[in-house]
Design a protein that fits this description.
The chain has nine helices and no strands. By secondary structure, it is an all-alpha fold.
């Protein structure tokens, strides 16, 4: 009887140890993505080349995953389009230039821009991803407002992901911004810069404008 009790006790201890190890493995599996997400969000929010205090890191990480975009490219898109600011574009159409030109995006200014657009004035890019077409702005409005950064980023990323699926990355980027023939190469270079920054290989990502300044000023830049 005593031998049976000893065996049973040892079996219980072994089972308990197995359960503890299994729980730790399960917990580690669930916490690792969270730690990784938190690190990436912090890196994006601390970007020295971006607007201070933008707080878009979580939107960029989560919406890039949702859209199936590689994160460096997603981060680079917002960097090139708005430098992590919620602003209007500055598209000019002569006498038909939209009276809402540049400056911060608010709900009131956004609705003013849309009313002017309906009266025949030119389009303006909106927000972090510079949504310019009425259809994309409507998509963001359906989520809660094109003036809301998270909704704006979600629609912009979804649109870019769809373009890349249909045309490949380089042509997809060109379609996203059809005004600039070098847009794809610029954005891809910025994405490479973001990849190094997010991996801890560099101290900051560089936009196309910053790369031009570095080329002009050389060592003085740093």
């Amino acid at each position: 009887m005593r031998r049976v009790l000893i065996v049973a006790t040892l079996a219980a201890i072994a089972l308990a140890a197995t359960l503890v190890v299994a729980f730790e493995l399960w917990a580690a599996r669930d916490s690792e993505p969270a730690r990784s997400t938190g690190r990436l969000v912090a890196k994006i929010d601390a970007c020295p080349s971006c607007e201070r205090g933008h707080g878009y890191g979580r939107f960029v990480v989560e919406e890039a995953r949702r859209a199936g975009l590689r994160l460096p490219l997603a981060a680079a898109l917002v960097h090139e389009e708005s430098n992590y600011r919620n602003v209007f574009g500055k598209n000019r159409y002569g006498e038909r230039t939209n009276p809402v030109l540049g400056g911060p995006v608010t709900e009131a200014r956004y609705r003013q821009m849309r009313r002017a657009l309906a009266r025949g004035y030119g389009r303006q890019g909106v927000g972090p991803t510079q949504l310019t077409s009425v259809e994309l702005q409507d998509e963001a409005d359906a989520l809660g407002g094109a003036w809301v950064p998270r909704h704006n980023i979600r629609v912009g990323y979804r649109y870019l992901s769809d373009l890349i699926d249909r045309h490949g990355e380089t042509k997809g980027l060109l379609v996203y911004n059809g005004d600039l023939p070098d847009y794809a190469s610029r954005l891809q270079a910025t994405a490479r810069s973001w990849e190094d920054y997010l991996a801890g290989k560099s101290s900051r990502p560089f936009s196309a404008r910053e790369r031009r300044l570095r080329a002009l000023w050389g060592w003085i830049w740093d």
